[in-house]
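Lab notebook page, bench 4
Experiment: in silico fold of construct C2
Operator: M.H.
Input chain length: 330 residues
Purpose: comparison with the prior construct
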Amino acid sequence: MAHIQKELEKESEITTVAKTPSSPRFEIVDTTIRGDPLGAFQRINDILDLISDIEHELPPMRISFSHHDNPNMLSDWRIKPWHWRLRELGRQENFPPIYKTGWIEACHLTSLARQNPPLLPPPSLHTELSFAQLLNTSSPKSFISTHRATMDPCMHLVLLVTHGQFLSHDKGPYPHSSLMPQFSLCKTLLHHDVRPPVPYGWVSDLDSEAKWDLPWEKKVDERLNCRGSTTGLFASPGKAWRHAHRSRLVSLTNAIEGNLTILSDCGFENYSRIAPWVHYVPIQISYADLYDALAFFRTHGDLAESIATQGKEWSRNFWKKEDMAAYLYR
């Protein structure tokens, strides 16, 4: 384990945090970040500050952090069963060599991605997408019932060819040959990065209401507002950036006549502790259901208010600073 940790610390854009027997606090001890690391250090220290009152109870350890908003630890589909089996047998063996690259190397041999590997879209230099291509679907209109299932690229191949996280790396990198944890700000179902609670932009409930959050009855602007921006994939001639979800969202909504206005766009998250249609409204990566969902909730304001209220209540009850501290400590 120590050898694997040392190798991980040598990888590009990694910051190492350590707690030693002689120090009660976690400290940044090394980094491979190119350029000025101060912004990255601030991000990491904001996370570590969550456990500043209880970190003395944790044992000495070294942790690798990535400060970027994308995961790094692509899992070979064999690696978890391999380690579970060795654990049952009480043995240690080196993982078999990895010779192939690509996102689908994280998918089981029986998955749709393996049976019918998706073709990457062409670079966007000379490509203009039609309205149908922007939707990127020919299936009947539907709505999401199980959000987590729709996030599996092995079964929903559309993610690999329409999401910026995957398109930015073309067919994908080599998978990792170990399960050594790396703390990252996000992950997909193909990765084994460890997600710490991220306090960026966090405000207390009282502060938000005092500064900018209006009561529901005063929120009269009916425009669609999705957080984020068109980042995640360089708009370069050699990349299929027009097919990426964020760029498509802007193009798609600009192509619709009517009152639908985009202020910014949505990112790809892995929601595991909040429920779709209870705390938030899930939308397909194709956006085929976007307009219908918006039209529905414009005429069913009571349901929209219920979802917004329950989402806010969940945050108030389970996303306090002490909740984040307990999660990170565990």
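Observations: The chain has a mean pLDDT of 83. The beta strands are 15-19, 27-31, 61-65.
Next step: discuss at group meeting.
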